[in-house]
Amino acid sequence: MSTEQPFEIFIPESKLVALQQKLALAEFPDELEGSKWDYGVPLGDVTRLVTRWKEGFDWRAEEARLNEELPQFTRDIDVDGFGALNIHYVHRKSEVKGAIPLLFVHGWPGSFIEVRKVLPLLVLSSQDFPAFHVVALSLPGFGFSETTHKTGFAADQYAEVCHKLMLALGYNEYVTQGGDWGSLITRVISQKYGPNHSKAWHTNFPADALPPRLLSNPIAYIQHMFIPYTAAEKAGLERSAWFQREGRGYYSEQSTQPQTLGYSLTDSPVGLLAWIYEKLVNWTDSYPWTDDEVLTWISIFYFSRAGPAASVRIYYEVVHSDNVRQVVIQKSKIPMGVSLFPKELRIVPRR
């Protein structure tokens, strides 16, 4: 593994100029009266955001803020069968003695930026909560990490990158947090590298949770059969059903024909904006997105090292991997923590 190199985001001026030229030539579809969000992202939202992207959004200022707030680095990580990949990551150490090394793993359509607002809280000294040394990488193909150029880079390989990064940073023992794909990746880490290295893991997306079984957990099974769901659990099941019915179209395309979709995401900044903005709104609990916050999020994808098409290939690779089912049903060897937020995409009953 190579040595660590400091990293600052700097997008070439030529790319900023090219973006402005494409935004100036954007054409928009019409919209049915009263359709609102039922048919997808409303026209008014997209035109407002595109106008801001052209006329008011200052990428250079946001770039400087990201560089100031987030200590960033890169290093090469050797992946079995794939060679070395140059990986971008945020790494902030706590000043608290005995702080816990924490690997923060994002999903799609996320990036290292997901750690931005919680990072200052995680490293703080507190009598009530532990402090952490935080590592938040850009997964290969996301943000400013290099992407693989060979097929077959699936959950095992993402987990290998994460684990080897922590070892390279001197963290022989660590805990993890994963959301979306990060949940699957940290599950694999718990299975492959726990309990010797990965000591515990937390997820806000327990998407692979299954009902209790009679033979493995008879008490929970009987409780599940006879104790009614709470109002919150019923609401969670309704949310899950909505997502299965109305929100999974993107998943089918990205897990079967990601290259076809990649042309639009790469060539059209407006198409990329609409594709991701839909998820930012639908997948959060009335979070008060500012336009500049959205545009920063989208710009990281648009200006990403490998281009936005690379980020969606994880769907195809994981779905078509040989051991994906085994990963889901295999039990973790280490303690697991779960957060259940009201607007997660799959919310299962506590049992």
From TrEMBL:
Keywords: Aromatic hydrocarbons catabolism, Hydrolase. One of its GO terms (biological process) is epoxide metabolic process. GO terms for molecular function: epoxide hydrolase activity. InterPro entries: AB_hydrolase_fold, Epox_hydrolase-like, Epoxide_hydro_N, Epoxide_hydrolase. Pfam families: EHN (PF06441). It comes from the Eukaryota. Residues 5-115 form the Epoxide hydrolase N-terminal domain. Belongs to the peptidase S33 family. This is Epoxide hydrolase N-terminal domain-containing protein. It comes from Collybiopsis confluens.
